[in-house]
Amino acid sequence: QKEVEQNSGPLSVPEGAIASLNCTYSDRGSQSFFWYRQYSGKSPELIMFIYSNGDKEDGRFTAQLNKASQYVSLLIRDSQPSDSATYLCAASGNTPLVFGKGTRLSVIA
Amino acid sequence: DAGVIQSPRHEVTEMGQEVTLRCKPISGHNSLFWYRQTMMRGLELLIYFNNNVPIDDSGMPEDRFSAKMPNASFSTLKIQPSEPRDSAVYFCASSLGGLRTDTQYFGPGTRLTVL
């Protein structure tokens, strides 16, 4: 059973702080990793994807991948109240995406 | 550009009735995915199509669920007969091609309530 695990939260951070979201996956064959953001009552939207070990930065967002530890993370710098949402981690190899249940982030103004 | 289109956006039905959910993928996308999302189980893949052909339906919960993709611009997910435990948000997503690297774009979802 391929699984992606996330802490359900809620994770509360003050405005301007760094939010750190973590994810582990069970399938060592997973090669691609995605972070989706889902606002309440809305559909998931892609924030970032990462394929290689290390860090990938896009604006205020940094994705980190450690394949040896089967660990993916998302850092959000200078968190804003508009970042409050559920963040879904997903992994795929030669099979479709497997999603985690998501971490709810609350940024307090 | 139009994104993934789903209809209806909300559906309320009674147990035992047939329910049909519809999806129009983004033009030019070759892969289509149906998901179900609940608080308890999160986002679950039900079935996916590539070039209109069902590739993996192992996520379809039981024989009451069926999906078709008669052409590149239309897909349906049917539940017959519906049960209260089918209440969930059903998302359709499409991607340009390959599974490993292509971004999936989600439709707005259909919120299904079975009474």
Question: Can you describe this structure?
Answer:
The complex is a heterodimer of chains A (about 110) and B (about 120). Chain A is mostly beta strands and about 110 residues long. Chain A is built from no helices and eleven strands. Chain A starts with a strand and ends with a strand. Chain A has strands at about 5, 10-15, 20-25, 30-40, 45-50, 55-60, 60-65, 70-75, 85-90, 100, 105-109. Helices cover about 0% and strands about 55% of the residues of chain B. Chain B has no helices and eleven strands. Chain B has strands at about 5, 10-15, 20-25, 30-40, 40-50, 55, 65-70, 75-80, 90-95, 105, 110-115. In chain B, the strands form two sheets. In chain B, strands 2, 4, 5, 6, 9, 10 and 11 form a seven-stranded mixed beta sheet that branches. Chain B is globular and about 35 Å long. The model of chain B has no long low-confidence stretch (mean pLDDT about 95). The interface of A and B includes residues 31 and 42 of A.
Order of helices and strands of chain A: EEEEEEEEEEE
Class by SSE composition of chain A: mainly beta
Low-confidence stretches of chain A: none
Specify the overall morphology of chain A. globular
SSE layout and pairings?
The complex is a heterodimer of chains A (109) and B (115).
Chain A (H helix, E strand, L loop, with lengths): L3 E3 L4 E4 L4 E7 L6 E7 L6 E6 L3 E5 L2 E6 L4 E6 L8 E8 L5 E2 L3 E6 L1
Parallel strand pairs in A: 2-11
Antiparallel strand pairs in A: 1-3, 3-8, 4-5, 4-9, 6-7, 7-8, 9-10, 9-11
Chain B lengths: L4 E3 L2 E4 L5 E6 L6 E8 L3 E9 L2 E4 L8 E7 L2 E6 L8 E8 L9 E2 L3 E5 L1
Parallel strand pairs in B: 2-11
Antiparallel strand pairs in B: 1-3, 3-8, 4-5, 4-9, 5-6, 7-8, 9-10, 9-11
